[in-house]
Design brief:
Helix content is 30%, strand content 12%. With 693 residues, the chain is α+β, with helices and mostly antiparallel strands.
Length: 693
């Protein structure tokens, strides 16, 4: 009997699984996390150096003394258990997020701990601060005006929360260039934020061109005697703009005037404009910060912007210069500290700094540290900010539809930064066959930049073409090794899960207001489902699985799971299949609990082209999933990519500035797996009976 399925009881009484399956050789690379061994790929940027998500499933944990699954009658017993499962009344409830990270104070469910299979009184949580490596200042309590508007206790507060995106938009300094899908919310479903196309933030001149109305940042300077009316008017052609409460607009205007350093900078420009001498006045948005980003994020007006009269010094060419009056708009770099504060003044009322380059990790100078980068990556910054902590302002997380927009915007920032990394590195890297470099050297060519070809997008870029192609090949490799899968299971996130309902209701929210919580709960339940499958007590012993995470029309995550059932337990007859698959609605009398579950969660009216207004799911979940670093594809057993080539045909990666001779010498020193295996066979007779794959 193969020892690939050894059940081990955990503290919660559930069954876990320890896989001892061998690695599978394939022509494509892998593991459950995106490890990059491809010679043509480029290492991903810093935010992917410490992946978070599936590492908590340790397939190498020691097994306990429970008996092996080797009972000859177990197959029939399992099939009968599955058929009778509809009578079960218990639902697995994870409780509430009452566990606190010992480093940063973020609140977690116990099942979010790093080593889920190991019971402990001091759980470790990698999702927030990377075990103390990320250290950021807590967000200051919001001004009382904003707190009262978020209380959801008066008609005024409810009006504000219902229209929070419009209120934020009228005070935003920058515009979003992505295409917002406004038709998605025409149905009866919960409102969502869906963004398409390339997203970036833009800012115009200080005052509008002649004949045009002011908008965005210009509203802080131009015609401020009618500022409230101008701000509402700037939201047109929105049909709901005229319904906005002018008193709320005035209160928010006064709050920002008193608290926000960016607003104060523009008000300084307004005073200069009123004096009449404004023809050569510009505003410089300052990028540089001299204070430690780990402990300081509240800049003053002089630290975020400066008025400039006359010509701009060449030393500040990397800064954003807001012209006096122009038809041109300028894009704001996501690496600007005030990038988020410019777009979300109602989330960051004090103009708090966002992510910027140079925020060091807490242990950057500790001896023996293994992390390659000293500074915090953008994704790590957002993963830290998306956590609830005692003593920190909850305004960002309780901003409903505006929080959805922030999640999507933040994810596009991270992706843009990754693409910028590839664009920066790509021009410096080329790839050529080893033999081709030798031929160039024989021809007398010494400049390596004249040979080879550019590397495009590496396979480590999630959801890129090579990433998808490699994952497909990995799954084929598993099929070749184990056989075809026996089961195709789809698991969908359910906003009605008791953990989700309790969490949002205690905060006066709805499930669609917290996509981050939906993703976290779904991830825990998905991991538990995989543990149940691997335990061997659902469909019998399994030999492997492959999981892909996707996001539906309205955004909820769902998992497509291919299960490779061991040959001993595979359904072999129509009767066996009927025991595990049912296309019938459960009997209301015999299985009332299962009937209610199917009726409530699995049946809905016409959708798609038959009913374009059908409410199905909520949004912004994919952004939260990716910001947390959860994987979108993983499998077991793991697949290891083994390079294979003819003599002298291996790929060599080198920089533009290298000579051909340097590239050849580097390739001779750093050998790939295939060449190393061949040389080992020449040196060690004991290894000659071991096949490469």
């Amino acid at each position: 009997m193969d020892r690939g399925a050894i059940p081990a009881t955990t503290l919660s009484g559930t069954i876990s699984y320890n896989s001892t399956s061998p690695n599978i050789a394939s022509t494509s690379q892998v593991d459950r996390r995106p490890v990059n061994n491809n010679a043509n790929d480029i290492d991903p940027p810093a935010e992917h150096e410490d992946p978070v998500g599936f590492d908590d499933i340790n397939l190498n944990e020691p097994a306990d003394d429970d008996p092996l699954i080797d009972n000859e009658d177990l197959e029939d017993e399992l099939m009968n258990d599955v058929a009778a499962a509809g009578h079960a009344t218990a639902m697995w409830d994870m409780g509430d997020p009452t566990n606190e990270c010992e480093h940063c104070g973020a609140m977690f469910w116990y099942d979010e701990r790093k080593r889920r299979k190991v019971p402990t009184r001091t759980p470790k949580f990698p999702l927030c601060c990377l075990h103390g490596k990320v250290q950021l200042p807590l967000l200051k309590a919001a001004p009382k005006i904003l707190q009262d508007l978020h209380a959801n206790e008066t008609d005024k507060s409810r009006h504000f929360l219902k229209n929070i995106r419009m209120f934020n938009g009228m005070f935003a300094f920058t515009s979003m260039a992505g295409k917002v899908d406004k038709n998605i919310n025409n149905g009866r479903g919960p409102p969502i934020f869906l963004l398409g196309g390339q997203n970036y933030h833009s800012i115009g001149s200080l005052i509008p061109p002649v004949g045009q109305s002011p908008k965005f940042a210009q509203l802080y300077i131009f015609d401020t005697e009618n500022e409230v009316a101008n701000r509402i008017q700037a939201l047109r052609p929105s049909s709901d703009a005229h319904k906005l409460d002018e008193l709320i607009v005035r209160d928010l205007q006064n709050m920002l005037d008193a608290e926000n350093p960016l607003v104060k900078s523009y008000r300084y420009a307004r005073e200069r404009y009123r004096c009449g001498d404004f023809s050569n006045v510009k505003l410089r948005l300052i990028r540089q910060r001299d204070k430690d980003g780990r402990t300081y994020n509240l800049p003053t007006a002089s630290e975020v912007a400066a008025l400039v009269v006359g010509d701009i010094d060449a030393t500040v060419k990397r800064e954003i210069i807001v012209e006096t009056q122009s038809m041109l708009i300028k894009h704001i770099d996501p690496t600007y500290p005030s990038f988020l504060a410019l777009q979300y003044p109602l989330l960051f009322p004090y103009g708090e700094d966002g992510w910027r380059r140079g925020i060091l990790t807490k242990d950057y100078d500790a001896p023996g540290r293994t992390r390659k980068k000293d500074d915090i990556a953008m994704r790590e910054w957002f993963a830290y900010r998306l956590q609830e902590r005692k003593g920190e302002s909850p305004i960002v997380l309780q901003s409903r539809r505006l929080f959805q927009q922030l999640l999507v915007d933040s994810y596009t920032m991270v992706e843009a930064d990754r693409m910028r990394y590839y664009r920066t590195i790509q021009p410096k890297l080329r790839v050529e066959r080893y033999k081709g470099l030798h031929e160039c050297l024989v021809r007398g060519e010494t400049n390596a930049a004249a040979t080879g070809q550019r590397i495009i997008l590496p396979g480590s870029f999630t959801r890129g073409p090579r990433y998808m192609f490699n994952n497909c090949k990995h799954s084929f490799a598993i099929c070749r090794y184990i056989g075809y899968p026996s089961l195709f299971i789809t698991m969908t996130c359910n906003p009605e899960w008791p953990e989700v309902k309790r969490f949002v209701e205690t905060r006066g929210l709805k499930p669609e207001d917290r996509p981050d919580i939906l993703c976290r709960v779904f991830k825990m339940k998905l991991d538990e489902l995989i543990d149940d499958l691997k335990s061997g007590k659902v469909f019998g012993k399994i030999s492997g699985y492959s999981i892909t995470i996707e996001f539906q029309k309205r955004g909820l995550p769902h998992a497509h799971i291919l299960v490779f059932v061991h040959a001993e337990f595979k359904p072999k007859t129509p009767e066996d299949i009927d025991k595990v698959i049912s296309a019938e609605i459960p009997d209301r009398t015999n299985n009332p609990e299962l009937f209610e579950a199917v009726q409530k969660y699995m049946i809905h009216g016409p959708c798609g082209v038959l009913n374009l207004k059908s409410p199905i799911y909520i949004s912004a979940c994919e952004a939260a999933w990716r910001l947390f670093g959860f994987e979108v594809h993983y499998r077991d057993p793991p697949v290891v990519r083994l390079p294979f080539h003819l003599p002298g045909e291996q790929s060599v990666v080198y920089n533009d500035g290298e000579t051909v001779q340097d590239a050849i010498e580097k390739a001779d020193i750093k050998k790939n797996k295939f060449i190393g295996w061949m040389e080992a066979n020449q040196l060690y007779a004991a290894g000659r009976d071991i096949t490469y794959s």
